[in-house]
Structure formats: C-alpha cells, structure tokens
Design goal:
- It is built from four helices and two strands, in the order βααβαα.
- It is mainly alpha-helical.
- The chain has a two-stranded antiparallel sheet with strand order 1-2.
- Helix 1 packs antiparallel against helix 3 and helix 1 runs parallel beside helix 4.
Length: 199
Amino acid sequence: MPVTRVRAAAIAALFIVISASPASAVSRIPVHSTDDPASPTANRIDAVTNIVEATNARLERVASAYPPNPCADITEPTAFCDAAIGAFAAYSAVGQSVADACAGGPLDGPGDAVITDADAFAADMSATGLANQLASIAVVLGNADDRLGGILTPSPGPPDAPVTTSLGVLYAAIADGGTVAGGLLHPPDPGFEYPPNPC
C-alpha cells in the first residue's frame, strides 16, 4: 500500500451512519499535549510518542469490538472500513516522517504547539461511533505528524544519538498501532506486518 501524507484537514469530516447497535460506557483516552520549544529535541519527540501511544490505546478499543480482519473481504465501501483505511494511512504517514528523519531528509512543518482531543466518541460503540473514533485517531495522528515536522525541520541532516533513540521509540509505537490498523484491512494469512524500524 503506498504511503500517503495525511493532513488533519483532509480527514476531519466524521462519518454519519445510522446504526441500531447500543452504546456502552467506555473510559475516554483524551489527548492534551503542549510542545515546549525550549526542551531538548529528544524530549519533544517523546511527547509525540505519548500522543501515538494514546491513539494506539483507542485503536485497540475499536479493534476489540470486531472480529479479526473485518474489512478484508468487504467489496462495498462502509463507513467503518473507510475510516480504518484513513487511520492506517495516518499511521503510515507519520511512520514515513520518522523514516525521513532517520535518513536526515526534509520534513513538513511546523505543527500546532497544542494538540487536544477529548475522545468524544469513546462511549459510542455502534458502527457510527467506531467509525468516528477511527476518524478521530487519524486527525490526532495527522496533528502529531505535523508536530514532528515542526520539531525537526529547523535541524536538517542526520539526527544525533539521543534524537535517534527517541525516533526509534516513536517508530515502535507507530508500528504497534499501524499493525493493528493494518490488521483491520488485511486477511490473517499471510497476515500484516509493519515495516521494520528505520532508525
């Protein structure tokens, strides 16, 4: 699947689908992150990792509501599977940014200093709510991708050791989420594995 750069604005629209499935009480996993330009670059990247780990926890919640590979054999578009594609593309985009950073390549930027998302659809486990949760994940990841570009753009070239370490940890978190998102789309045999750590 080709990697595409996903912008938050391109996936901000949420999916409206009528569903008869009942909602259930689920704890929210909110995101609130403020970038501190005065902090060491590695610490700022670690804050991006925290954002990705929050989206991973949300994604696990969504995936647990479906059997494995729910979109593998879908022939007609559905809100859930379209949103799963968007989430996977968002993981792919930020993963590509890490790969570019590890190679000393240029990144997009800057990003917003504050990233906030309340996980407003957490309690809605209907088809509509799950699609909206996936769309929200993609938006947060798009913002995290922009943040990463803003952190690294002023310092082009191969990263130093602390930054490389933080990028490696970030990529591991991206791979965890990307593997789950890819698992929503791909059949279990031969399965889906995220590309190896580029750092």
